[in-house]
Design a protein that fits this description.
Shape: globular
Mean pLDDT: 95
CATH superfamily of the largest domain: Butyryl-CoA Dehydrogenase, subunit A, domain 3
Strand order of the largest sheet: 1-4-5-8
Number of helices: 10
Distance between the termini: 36 Å
Largest sheet: 4 strands, mixed
Order of helices and strands: HHHHHEEEEEEEEHEEHHHH
Bound molecules: flavin-adenine dinucleotide
Structural class: alpha+beta
């Protein structure tokens, strides 16, 4: 077993770190918190990330992608500024879904505008009444002439309030239940929808994390239905497994930043005439924080390298997702404790890191759902259908 990254992965991480420091963070800091950025400014931010492969990720070069493997893409994502993690993850995963499920014409038409950040994508599955139980989707897609007419609402959609391209799951044959669900590419310029941001605890007001979309008699050309002919099902499974690791990776960034802040604070803050870092109960927390974060990183790296091998790895990727996201909540909370009252202040970074980490135990399958998957893989018994 080799725990070392390759030279290419190390170099890519170094370039990503420099890009964040020199371009991305200064650009973001040019926008005041509390005021939503214009869509063109969000696209301007995404454009800075194109050269390193953030948007092209694992999509092959022949479609304009970066042709990375998942492990290398994960290494790249690990260097992102955490405030834009969801934005970038979904900006990259929506074209990836089209690459996985689309036909040749759909790939040639819809992937390039998203890879060049002319369009920003979102992926719409969850609804006001449908969360973990995706088979119960209520959004309807009714055939009518050359179109499908979509009616329904989608909630908690990352990038949802400003995206102009959507991957939408809707029921085109309600009697068939889960088997009657279909996926559509919906281009807002052609098939408009209404959207609004949903304020959440992780927001800093510049880029709303999630939004609600309402499709009212939204006409989508029939050729925009995504099939899954060929290797579609297998590729979809690989996509889900990868997404769990990538959400875990987002959490890892919050945890890593929290440890850095806590270590620095523990060295600088003095009480009882000594740096608090000399107290054993503070050292206990630092050791726990480091062990939780390292364990999360190893589980995520293992998950991503198994995804690259192409096999089924539901047990390992669900374990990585729930462990990493729950670990980040604990680590960021301990960082607040080490900071005392200062940890609760918005003038210090750790309360923001905690709020960000707290968001991550829910998307792409909650902790409970991931645990049910892990236990199902071990026991061979299904707790839900
Ligand atoms: C930051 C963020 C980003 C998101 N981005 C997207 C996105 O881009 N696209 C999208 O489609 N959705 C997105 N979501 C929605 C997310 O996928 C759902 O919130 C998630 O699937 C859970 O659904 P729910 O919130 O409706 O909770 P519910 O499914 O109603 O669950 C409520 C509680 O019950 C538990 N529960 C449910 N079923 C079971 C069971 N069988 N056994 C035990 N416990 C159970 C859950 O774990 C949870 O604790 C996002 C959510 C967040 C927070």
């Amino acid at each position: 077993m080799d725990f070392d990254l390759t030279d290419e992965q190390r170099m890519l991480k170094e370039s990503a770190r420099k890009l964040m420091e020199r371009e991305v963070v200064p650009y973001l800091n040019g926008f005041p918190t509390g005021r939503p950025m214009a869509l063109d400014d969000i696209k301007g931010l995404l454009k800075k990330l194109i050269p390193l492969g953030y948007l092209g990720n694992v999509i092959p070069e022949e479609y304009g992608g970066a042709g990375l493997d998942y492990m290398t893409y994960g290494c790249l994502m690990e260097e992102l500024d955490p405030s834009i993690y969801g934005l970038v993850m979904l900006a990259g995963s929506t074209p990836r879904s089209i690459y996985i499920l689309g036909d040749e014409e759909q790939k040639r038409k819809y992937i390039p505008p998203m890879l060049s950040a002319e369009k920003v994508g979102c992926s719409c599955i969850t609804e006001p009444n449908v969360g973990s139980y995706t088979a119960g989707i209520q959004t309807r897609a009714i055939p009518d002439g050359d179109d499908y007419v979509i009616n329904g609402a989608k909630m908690w959609i990352t990038n949802g309030s400003f995206a102009d391209m959507a991957f939408v799951l809707a029921s085109s044959d309600p009697e068939k239940g889960a088997k009657g669900l279909s996926r559509f590419i919906v281009d807002k310029d052609v098939s408009p929808w209404e959207a609004r941001p949903i304020p959440t605890m992780g927001d800093d007001g510049r880029i709303p994390a999630v939004g609600e979309l309402v499709f009212e008699d939204c006409r989508v050309p029939k050729r925009n239905m995504l099939g899954d002919s060929g290797g579609g099902l297998k590729a979809t499974l690989i996509g889900f497994q990868a997404a769990r690791c990538l959400v875990g990776m987002g959490s890892l960034i919050f945890a890593t930043r929290a440890i850095e802040a806590a270590v620095q604070y523990a060295k600088e803050r003095t009480q009882f005439g000594r740096p608090i870092g000399q107290f054993q109960l503070i050292q206990d927390k630092i050791a726990d924080m480091a062990a939780l974060t390292d364990a999360a990183r190893l589980l995520i790296y293992r998950g991503l390298s198994l995804v690259d091998k192409g096999g089924r790895c539901a047990r390992e990727t669900s374990m990585a997702k729930f462990f990493a996201t729950e670990a980040a909540v604990k680590v960021t909370s301990m960082a607040i404790q080490i900071h005392g009252a200062y940890g609760l202040s918005t003038e210090y970074p750790v309360e923001r890191l905690f709020r960000g980490a707290r968001m991550m135990t829910i998307p792409d399958g909650t902790t409970e759902i991931q645990k049910l998957i892990v236990a199902r893989e071990i026991l061979g018994m299904q707790a839900f259908v």
